[in-house]
Amino acid sequence: MKGPESTRENAEGRARPRGRRAAGIVFAILFGGALAFLGGFAAFASHVARLTTPAEQPDADAIIVLTGGEKRLDAAVDLLKSGKGRRLLISGVHPAAGLSDLQRATGGDAGLFSCCVDIDHAALDTIGNAEESAKWVTSHAYDRVIVVTNNYHMPRSLLELKRLIGDTELQPYPVVNTRLDGGEWVANREALRVLFTEYAKYLGALARGVVPGLSPRAAGQDEAQHAGTAG
After folding, report:
1. CB under 8 A, 24+ apart: contacts of 106-114
2. Please, what's the largest Cα pairwise distance for the chain?
């Protein structure tokens, strides 16, 4: 007849393999998740690195530029000046900045700014950019719009815009500040930081599309359009 100690030892002996199996399953899930995350980041970074400014941009009805990154505004004004769109929305402008301030900062033509440029002071982040841009596009019934932002910011910007902008065709115009298409981002610490941060935000934007009731603001506030050398 087995005593209490023998029974306890048998129970502990059975529990140890179960505990090891559970720990192994948890480790496999965490390890697989980490691999998927890093693999997704590599694919995201490689995609961003391959984005280049079009040599010839097709004409559109209008242009939207999301402020924040270096050279975005200049690129958008040049597109307007060259007739690639009839009107320009500058989204995410600082509340203290007016149309004349932006005109002077870009060296743009005062008449062009007066007739054909609108500014949005309400947007504080990429989600806000999408919301205000969608209102502007809808109010003008535009069918084709050029979207100007830095290359690293383009995937998330298009994702947020497409959710709100209906059937309007979005033509990406990525602004590239630092060439990364040769894989230079792997050894560039600042580029890695910007790309990794943007990738995390892109995943958050994807999650909002598949998780019912997930608030855009609860998913994480975006800074007021970061600037970075990876753009």
Report:
1. 106/73, 106/74, 106/77, 108/77, 108/81, 109/81, 112/77, 112/80, 112/81
2. 101
Residue at token pair 């899930």: 29
Model pTM greater than 0.85? Answer: no
pLDDT in tens, the chain (231 residues): 555 555 555 545 555 666 677 777 777 787 777 778 888 888 999 899 889 999 899 999 999 999 887 799 999 999 999 999 999 999 999 999 999 999 998 888 999 999 999 999 999 999 999 999 999 999 999 999 999 999 999 999 999 999 998 899 999 999 998 777 666 666 678 888 989 999 999 999 998 877 755 555 444 444 434 444 444
CB atoms within 10 A of CB 116: 16
Cα gap 213→176, rounded to integer Å: 35
Starting at the edge strand found earlier in the chain, the sheet holding 169-175 runs 117-120, 87-91, 62-66, 144-150, 169-175
- Give dist(CA 64, CA 85) in Å, integer: 10
